[in-house]
Specification:
Radius of gyration: 17 Å
Number of strands: 13
Distance between the termini: 23 Å
CATH architecture of the largest domain: 3-Layer(aba) Sandwich
Bound molecules: ribulose-5-phosphate
Number of domains: 2
Shape: globular
CATH class of the largest domain: Alpha Beta
Length: 235
């Protein structure tokens, strides 16, 4: 089974949790794209009606519009009923590293605002310790770039500025810079998240701690639906 098939299966399972009339946080990334297509297909065939989406990135907004989904803003609906998003790495406590697509700031705002957070992944994203396989994305105010880079290095990270394919530094939807901070395996994700959150100039870090309500994992054996109360959910 291809990785796309697995992503699509996880996405479909998550879309089953959507009910008519809901406001839905729409995450970003290739797995979420399958969810968007599924939501659009079910709304066009009226299996779900009257839903509104709050996109977490300009890319998700563009795709959702193209699919004909009705959109709204977080100002109009400050507490979405459900938020569906992907992740780069998931640990057994359902903590996450996110931001591979550079949309972590708005994704975190949606995750913290929504009633229920549903994360959709293929099994390749599961990890015993965050940082085992993915650097930590950090969104930084350009004014503070050098200062934050030094700070991250002082905390033991090797820091790379994220670039576009053409070599220009990536700018987020908010016009900020993304650093990929290579900490290696993170012993205490909660403490690191608190440290980074306290540093002015860091606008968001990719550690999503205690925010996942449901984790939908697709692998070759089928779908696993894990909830926070089950944690630790895999070994
Ligand atoms: C974007 C994200 C994505 O959810 C994450 O990178 C996973 O993406 P994909 O589904 O393409 O593997 O955090 O900022």
């Amino acid at each position: 089974m291809s990785s796309d098939t697995l992503k699509q299966q996880a996405a479909r399972f998550a879309v089953d949790l959507i009910e008519s009339g809901m406001v839905i946080g729409l995450g970003s990334g290739s797995t979420v794209k399958f969810a968007l297509a599924e939501i659009a297909s079910r709304s066009h065939s009226r299996r779900i009606e009257g839903i509104l989406g709050v996109p977490s990135s300009s890319e998700t907004q563009r795709i959702a519009r193209k699919l004909g989904l009705a959109l709204t803003s977080l100002d109009e609906h400050p507490q979405p009923d459900i938020n569906i998003d992907g992740a780069d790495e998931v640990d057994p406590q359902l903590n996450l590293i996110k931001g591979g697509g550079g949309a972590l700031l708005r994704e975190k705002v949606l995750a913290q605002s929504s009633r229920r957070n549903v994360i959709i992944v293929d099994a390749g994203k599961l990890s015993q310790r965050l940082g085992d396989r993915w650097p930590l994305p950090v969104e930084v105010l350009p004014f503070a770039s050098k200062s934050v880079e030094r700070f991250l290095m002082s905390q033991g990270a090797r820091v790379e500025i994220r670039h576009l394919a053409d070599g220009r530094p990536l700018r987020t939807d908010q016009g900020n810079t993304i650093f990929d901070a290579h900490f290696g395996p993170i012993e205490d994700p909660e403490a690191l998240a608190a440290l980074l959150s306290a540093r002015a100039g860091i606008l968001a870090n990719g550690l999503f701690i205690g925010l996942t309500d449901d984790l939908i994992v697709a692998d070759h054996a089928g779908i696993r639906h894990l909830t926070r109360t089950d944690a630790p959910v895999f070994r």
